[in-house]
Amino acid sequence: MTIIAVTAASGQLGSEIVNAVVDIVGRENLVGLARTPSNAESLGIEIRPGDYESPQDLQRSLEGVGSVLLVSGMAAPDRRVTQHRNVIQAASRAGVSKIVYTSIQGAEENTAFSPIVQSNRQTEDDVRSSGLQWVIGRNGIYMEPDVDYIETYRQRGEIANCAGEGLCGYTTRRQLAFAYARMLTEPKHHANTYNLHGVANPDRLSYQVNVTQTLSRKQTVRSP
Description:
It comes from Allorhodopirellula heiligendammensis. Residues 9-156 form the NAD(P)-binding domain. The chain has 8 helices and 9 strands. The chain is an alpha/beta fold. Strand 5 (98-104), helix 4 (114-128) and strand 6 form a beta-alpha-beta unit. Helix 1 (12-25) packs across helix 7.
């Protein structure tokens, strides 16, 4: 069976993807790449060096791998593009056949987040022109950060953000991992780009009201 590698395996999304892929191919057919390998030892799979800034280490770590999942990095946009290219080029040189990339959704112009979206679109282009088989997923908004922030809302006594009545199609990292595991293991996804998000309901304001009703004391909902 083809060996699969998952980059950023010690991260929140990467580790979820590792667990989802293990369920399909077993631990013996999966390796994790991590900038600090010791941080990923608890995953119970082989861990290899995977610093996006170290092309030679990346190439060595990808030797013998058939498919690699590239988790989008967290660096500044320009640096992020270079880091991703290091992984793509290392995969090509190591003889990897297929690459799956975790991109993002979002407007490419006129928002504070647009430079990050643009950097992801550049990596999408790099993936498509790499000569490898490819699949791209564009992640929506994770539910977990909002859940993690509930205690902060409680302490502040209000839920404040700039979402207004905008709709939000939340996903969880586990749901995304389920999708990426299948992109990695099912040939039918080749050369596809998927928008990965939930149904845009409830809107952010409804979510905030539900949180308010759940908390033990009255909160103010403020969404300018």
